[in-house]
Every structure is written in structure tokens, then in C-alpha cells.
Amino acid sequence: MCNFSxxxxxxxxxxxxxxxxxxxxxxxxxxxIPEAERTPLVEALLLIIEQQAQTIQKLEEGIxxxxxxxxxxxxxxxxxxxxxxxxxxxxxxDDGDESDGDDKKPxxxxxxxxxxxxxxxTIHHEETIQPEGILPDNATFKGYRDxxxxxxxxxxxxxRYHLAIWETPDGKTYSGRPPSGGHFGGTIKSYILYxxxxxxxxxxxxxxxxxxxxxxxxxxxxxxxxxxxxxEEFIQEKExxxxxxxxxxxxxxxxxxGARHKGKNGYVTHIGNQHFAWFKSTASKSRxxxxxxxxxxxxxxxxxxxxxxxxxxxxxxxxxxxxxxEHSENIFQDEDxxxxxxxxxxxxxxxxxxxxxxxxxxGSLLEHGFRQDIVIVSDDAGQFNVFLHALCWVHTERLIHKxxxxxxxxxxxxxxxxxxxxxxxxxxxxxxxxxxxEQKNELDARFDxxxxxxxxxxxxxxxxxxxxxxxxxxxxxLQRPESPLHTNGSETDIRDYVKKKKVSxxxxxxxxxxxxxxxxxxxxxxxxxxxxxxxxxxxxxxKVNSIPPLAEIVRQKMGNKTA
Length: 563
Fold this sequence. Notes:
Elements: H1 15-27, H2 40-73, E1 165-167, E2 173-175, H3 186-197, H4 203-212, H5 219-228, H6 231-248, E3 251-258, E4 267-272, E5 277-282, H7 287-294, E6 301-302, H8 305-313, H9 318-326, E7 331-332, H10 335-344, H11 350-367, E8 375-378, E9 388-391, H12 393-401, H13 408-433, H14 437-451, H15 458-469, H16 471-474, H17 476-479, H18 488-504, H19 510-528, H20 533-541, H21 550-557
Parallel strand pairs: 3-8, 8-9
Antiparallel strand pairs: 1-2, 3-4, 4-5, 6-7
Helix pairs in contact: 3-20, 6-19, 6-21, 7-11, 8-11, 12-13, 13-14, 14-15
């Protein structure tokens, strides 16, 4: 944007004058102010200027976004986007998903080590090829050199069953039974599920593809296979996955994203760790919704001492708290009975109903064995701040990265703080591998040093104070070294869900939404457990069940722990 006021109040008429105004504007920066001159009034004015600069930056970005949209509508190209550098590229040299630095090559992907690529292949056909032309008389045979060609045979494989029919003299008829599963075999059903949920192929393209291969199938039959084929078994396995994982896990990372349903905006919540991933789409992303998801299928509401303690900490008025405590009924079987109870007690304000409901859900979770010591790592979204809550360091540092410096001194101080944060972050990762009390105290003291310092950038000072208030949640790792320092796992897991949303849009039926959540959960969990999703689908659809339930595999991975 051009600031016309720079050119002495005259609006520039030519492109050269506009460029000149831009160059002049960029020369004007706030000079550093000595500490002796930084009176409360000066600091307040500086804060206002800094906030206005950030607002202007956001407005410029919004205007540029609108310009890009207009350019696309006119058939032109929008402004190219440049990827940001990886700030965490040097903090974890041992992780394969992060770079080892600018001067080092990235680590190879798993399975890319040097080996004979065809040594484990099953050979279906062998053929000997002789040299072309006539060999010289003095040529000597020296054996063979193997050359393997991989190919794929795609063709229909149809079976016609002749069902014998027998009839007795009294009129009774006996007939052979066709195989279970209908008119489509397990392989084609697994293929449809795999293509749709894993390869993100839409139903119309699946229909076109199968018909080109001479498969006589309709769009309605594909839809039934996607929504109805062993739906209850898959859903049950998904739900058992969450309850078991919450029972045996030391930590979970959580995140949410948008998910449209029936033409309305909704949300999908992710819960997972290094061994499982679980998704659930709902119309809300409130704390009540998150606590309901943690119940893993339970529907009860319980009022307990922990419930009342939570309500007190959430500042529920004493008179409302007393009404709940004086009532003899403490267990409610479902949401309707709980809502009726609140109506009976005169809970009319939404805030009071929300706090009471959150307390009752916490009581229900603890009543059914939910572990209070499980670490819940989030990006500081308020709905996830329950029980033992930890914050993501990457999201925390991002707040500082987004600050707009007004002069070179601000820029230097921002970079200094960021360097200190990433150095502390790297040392926290070292601490995770070999915790010690001396290192713990040293890291704790360094946190105070970093986030209690004062700079000439007032907005940065306010942000450091805000981060310092979250010290306990950022340093959970000192007490629980097994907990992660970031939510990268959740963001990676939910990315596939977002891509699926971009390909297929929103869901149009409750069955479709349930199906999307179920297979997204099972697919991601299979990947984490190093199980082929294709083999998993074939195993479940064919009812062989040679692969154990995913919940049991997760339990084994976590060392057969019990609550």
C-alpha cells in the first residue's frame, strides 16, 4: 500500500512518484528511545503505534488476498506464495521428519536404504531370452543375468454359483446358499473402500473406473459398499480404539479443524499419539464437546467432589453450586435427564449451565476410570484446557514470529528472543532423553530468565509476560519427560482429513459423516502401527480377522499397561 501523505500531501500521479513515496515511507522508522526517556506516556504511545502497525499489516494481507481472488476470477495468476523456513530445523537432529540443518542432507525416508529391490518379489512367470541374431561359433555360454519386470494384472474375476435345488414329495424345497456378502466379492469391496478413503478418489470417478474394467456396478451399489459394508464392525473397532488408548496412554495430542456437514459449518476433533489416531465430527468445538468425546461412548453425568471443585474454580456462583450440592440425585443417565435437572434447579444463564455441565462431565469421566495424570497437549485452544494440560512450544514461538518490528532494534530483539527460545527448546529435548534434577532446575531458571526480560519493544514485553503466565503448561515436560513438546503429530494426522474435505467437500448424511470419521481413524492408526491399510481392509471385509483388533495392538505397543 502507498502512503500518499509522505509526498507532502500531494497525491502521486505517476508510477515513478508512487515508487518514490514507497521508498521514502520505508526510510521512516521509530528511533530507539533511551531508557531514561521511556516515561509511562511514551510506553503507552509506543504500544498504540505497535498495535496500529500490526493492524495495518493484517489489513494489507487481507487486501492482497482479495486482489488474488479478483485475479483468479479474471483468469490471471495470483501472487506466488513463498514457503516459510522451518524454524525448528536444528532442534531435533535425531528425528527423521525434521531437517538436520542447511548444511546437511535430509535423512532418507524409511525403506530407502540400499538393497536389491526385487529380491523379495514373488515371480509368477519366467521366460528365457536368447541374444538376437546368430552367435559366433566360438561363443561360450556363461549362465543367465536376471532381469525382473513388475506389472499389474487388472481384470474382472467373476464366479457363477450353481445353487442346487431339491424338492421332496411333500413339497419342501432345499437349495444351496450363496456366499455371504452379496453380488460383489471381498476384493472389489476392499478396493472401493481403499480408493475412496485412502486414495481420495471420488464416487463418480470410482464408478467410471470400475465400468472401464467391465465391472457391472451402479453408483448406488458403490454408495452402499462405502456406507453399509460391515459398518457396525468398523465403527465398533474405532470406538474401542479410543477407550483402550485413553486407558494405556501417558499422553495425547489434540487438535480440531473445520468440517462441513449437511451444508453447515462444523468441526472435527483429533485425539491421538504415536500409536493411534481418532477423529470425531460434531457441530461444536466447545469444552463440553471435548469432554463428551473423552467419555468414549459413555452417556452418564456424575456430580462428585471433583465436579464441585471444578465448578468452584470456574467461578460458578455459590447459590447455584449450593443448589446442586443439596439435591440428593447425583447420577444422570443421559443428556436429556441432566438438562431437565438443570431446568428444575433454575439454571437459566448459559454460562452457569455450561460450567455445571462441564463439571458433571468431568465427574463422569473420573467415575469411569479416566486417568487424571494423562497429559493433554494442545495449541492453547481453550476447550482442551482440562486435567493435566500442556502447551505446544511451536505455537507459542509462532506468536513472537508474527510480531512486526518497527525499527532495527526491534528486529534484533525479536531474533534474540527467538534464538533463546529455540535453544531452550533443543535442551528440553535433550532433557527428555536423560532427565536429571540438576538439568531440570537449570531449565526452569532459564525459562524465567527468557520470559521475564524487558526489551525496547513494548508489544514484545507484553507477549513475554503472557507466555510467562503459561510456564506451568509449557514446562510439563520437566515433570513428565515422555510428553511431547509440540502438537505436530495431531497437525500431521488431521492434514489428511483436511485434504479429504477439499476433494469431497462436506458430508450430506449422518452415515457419511460417521463413515468418514471411522475410516480416517482406522487408516491413520494402521499407518502408525505399520499395518498395511489394504491388508487390514481385506482382512476385515473377508472376515478372516487374522489381524488382531487395533485396540489390542495399541495396548501391546504401550507395554500392556492398565489404568
